[in-house]
Amino acid sequence: MGKYILKRVLQFIPVFLGVTLILFAMENIVPGDPIKLMAGEKKLDPQTEITLRASYHMIETDDNGNPIYDEAGNTIETPMWKRYGLYVGGLLHGDLGTSFQRTGQPVADILLQKYPYTVRLAIVAIILEAIVGIGAGMVSAIKRYSFWDILVTLITSILVAMPAFWFGMLLQLFFGIVLKDVTGGSVYLPISGAGGPNAEFADWVYYILPACTLAAVSTAYCARIMRSQLLEVLNQDYIRTARAKGLSRRDVIWHHALKNALIPVVTYIGIDFGAMMAGAILTETVFNWPGVGYETYRAITQRDWPIVLGSVTVIVVVVMVINLIVDVSYAFLDPRIRYGAGKSE
Amino acid sequence: MADKLMMGRRTFVAGSLAASALAALAGCGKKDAGAGAGAAAGGTMKFYINDPVAIDPYNTQESEGTQVEHILFDALTDYDWNKKEIVPKAAESWEANADATEWTFHLVKGAKFHNGDTVDAKSFKRAWERICDPKMTTPSKISYHLAPVMGYDAISEGNAKELSGVTCPDEYTLKVKLTAPMADFPYVVAHPALAPVPQAALDDPASFLTAPIGNGPFKMDGKWESGQYINVVRFDDYYGQKATLAGINFSIQKDPDTAFREFEAGNMDFTDIPAGRLKEISDKYGTSKDGYTVTKGAQALTGAEASIYFLAINMKDPVMQDLNLRKAMSLAINRQNIVDTLFEGSRKAANSAFPAIIDDNASNAWEFCKYDKDAAKKIVDDNGLAGTEITLSYNSGGGHEDIMSIIQADLEAVGLKVKQASMEWASYLTALGDGNYQVGRLGWNADYPTMDNFLYPNFYSTADNNYSAYKNEEVDAAIDAARQIVDEEARKAEYRRINVMIGNDLPIIPIMFYGHNKVGSARIQNFYFDAQNKGEFATAKLEG
Amino acid sequence: MTEEMEKNEVTESPVTTDGDIDTSAPARTLWGDAWSRLRRNKLAIFGAVWIVLMILVALTADLWVPQTLGSPTEADSTTMTQDSRLPPSPEHPFGTDTLGRDVLCRVIYGARISLAVGVLATAISTIIGLVMGALAAYYGGIWDTIIMRLADIFLAFPYILFVIAMLAVIGPGIQNVFIAIGILGWPSIARVFRSAILSVKENDYVDAARAMGASDARIVARHIFPNSVASIVVYATMNIGGAILTESALSYLGMGVVPPDPSWGIMIQDGQTYLATQPWLMLMPGLAILTTVLAFTLLGDGLRDALDVKMKDA
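Predict the joint structure of the above. Result:
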């Protein structure tokens, strides 16, 4: 097992280097000079432009940080490999660089401010997903072909087929606007923002609609997986044997079938947590949520590469670590699985 | 069967529980109306902004950051839009030498920063040197404001530690030497970015970025929560007229649409009107009489702004070098139709390089900056320009597509062939800066409300913002000369002459002047929102 | 969204029949059986009928839509003010938008964009995925390692951010949207195809063909591809729905189709402003996306059950 974990961790390295390198190359391919963009429509004066390029190590500087000029009086561009080296070197010291467009703010500070909102939202969504998804899946499997089964199947099919951002707007429409009209303004939910000192509601109320939106599609998949897993387990010999031995259906389901059926569901939920971190862009856009998804989207459109690099790298690492934890715990839960012996994956 | 029924009942119970829980949630999650910061005397105004670039004066540039920064900090002077003149702020008086190269500002005595430090001449010198310092973690992008000051080159190139042109003869006197005469200098120092900073700005620059300490009528309450809010509260030790409002909650929203939804839900006091809804909103909330002041029943603002929307012409492009072609294009565009159909009249058809609120003299109108389709057609036919191919470049989004489509149709109606090239913002700006365009859309917001600030940056041959690459030695020399004229009226007359001179060359085609497109809530009394998009929060009141 | 597509691999509808893919069975029986099973699946048939209907309407739109409902893109500035944001009525069944254009008309033309993006993007990712999957599975060794590591790097990226970044490189517009979605969608298809080939490769008849001196390309084309085609068809059908969702998300964010082209995502974004006052502006295009994607999902589910493809983690 230890060997397997080590092997997986070592596999992080090429993926991590590949991801950062692709992003770094992108900075050179994508049109739009981030320094020229800094002042918007107003053009930067040439001296300021040089000063800014020097401060971001885009041009060669001497030991005092002053730009070096060639014989013709032009600045010398720092080659990409050297800047990549500087970046990875900085990373090892925990330095993620400084934002281009958010004046003077370290990327680490911005991410530390944004990540908690995304992580908390994802946690609430995951809890929702687990409770509702597993519950609905169980009902659906136990009462196979019943009205409830058909209802769950219908709802999950619809949830899976709708754009998540549109579902968010439907929630805004019903809980923020229609409900407010119907109840004469006494009962409704906030439709944007994350609260704060001057907000109308307590902070936790602001999580309700975005979390439902973020969880919607995943909950539908979770319910479908739970259903098919439980059906499969219930069909297996040992369950039939247990039933034949006279155990009640309820005992069989709760004490034998459920545990085995839950393993792949838990795996799915674990992996989904990583996916939610990245997939929150649209939810964050619809609900004006101050998280990392929207920040990364903003950074791409404004060519704020240090932020893009930082946030995507963190997401990638988090997803890889979660996947590893899921795989390892899978092995603990299911004795039939053994890693590290012969067959890979 | 019984099993099934039971499950049904249980689910039903669960369902109703969930529904009632939701309703209860909304109820108990709601804060008491009296418990919030709104309860403090004077009330808290909720004001929509986008996430700013910076609220620290050393990099204050766009409208959103300026909105917050200009009430945290007081610069030396201020421009009064009603009196149309420069008035004292942190400086109570000032004088210049005969040729306007040396300025002396006398500061208000006893003014304090929010942390209790004294606002002295040194705090201005400190602030200005910070702006020029190339060794800041992120150097300032707006040091150009100080380019006229002696010693600017040396400090910004890293060859000096001090801005040598700025001296402090005593605690409350600031002396500024310029490299060339500039009679408009008091307008320059009215810019919010040139406000003073306390020693704390140098000691802890990182916190100063998100919680700056200023000398203005409001101070930070906590720090800037990116993407969420910036809260400020009244500064009770302010040297001038103290504010009535207890505070302002700058609510950061991603776009005007979201902000407007909050406004309609009663959660916002001041916001932008979404595109295409001006008429409906004006009918519902009433239109402000002067276009700048919000009062109950007259809440929609449509006053002119100190800015212009124009087509820059690449004067290095062989096709566009033909003056007749530029004249024909300018005459062919029906500007009134654009502002009427797309902006419901909130913007005004442009006829000059600057709007009337900067200078309303009738002689400012450019000869070819009007709609005359027949004249345009005649120029095209007489000069064999029919079928000339022109590419109109612009950035996608922001409603430019519709404007460009109308312009395209107008130009084609007089026989020109027009292609649209829409690019993403970042790519577009780069293309424009590199001169890879023929005709491109641009906007200009005045830093200082002077004619010079419209003419110099855009038309002086070596000015940074001269995207058109316009070069007319006569214009350059005339601007240099005008800057030295100390007499206000004589200087204005000279700028009017220069404006007409540029108008005859048409290095840009003016399209329209921007106007306010804002609405305030009925709670607001007497809130003035000026032509440079700065709110006079210090004099605003809230009802209830 | 790929994220969603990956989830599809592990889902089954209530009418699933279990069992592994029976690759050794003669092809004709497989397809014949599949058809008779598919015919009995009402939901799948409903999906198929809906898709055919959509395609017909989208293809023939030019012949009748502009005549009855007006232009989907051009606004008439003379009548704009009185035609702006009218509620649904017999004359405008879905109402009108801010510029006075008929929403039904725009939804119909939006179907063209969505279907084109869905089908073409899926075609691109399927082709790339097939080649990559075949190379990895058939040659194994270093090929397998390189291609699968590359797939890992691609899958490690947050998908939607990756597409946005790609569009920043190549610029917005319809063709760039399906190119971006197509190019970035290959890793999951490559994985599915790779495992399909690996399971077929072990069969005796492949060994027999090789022993008879057949070339690698011939073996893949004649023996392996036909036997994996069932899983490819199912996967591609489901992928179309995912590509349509991705397109709508991109257009909603303003990175996809460029206005005035009537993409459903753009229409939702436009309508969002009027959520409180004219909700049909965002409801109608959203319903169009929902029904279209649902149709592809139902058909995909039906095909999977009919073709007896077990879509587990590849």
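Chain B is about 30% helix and 20% strand.
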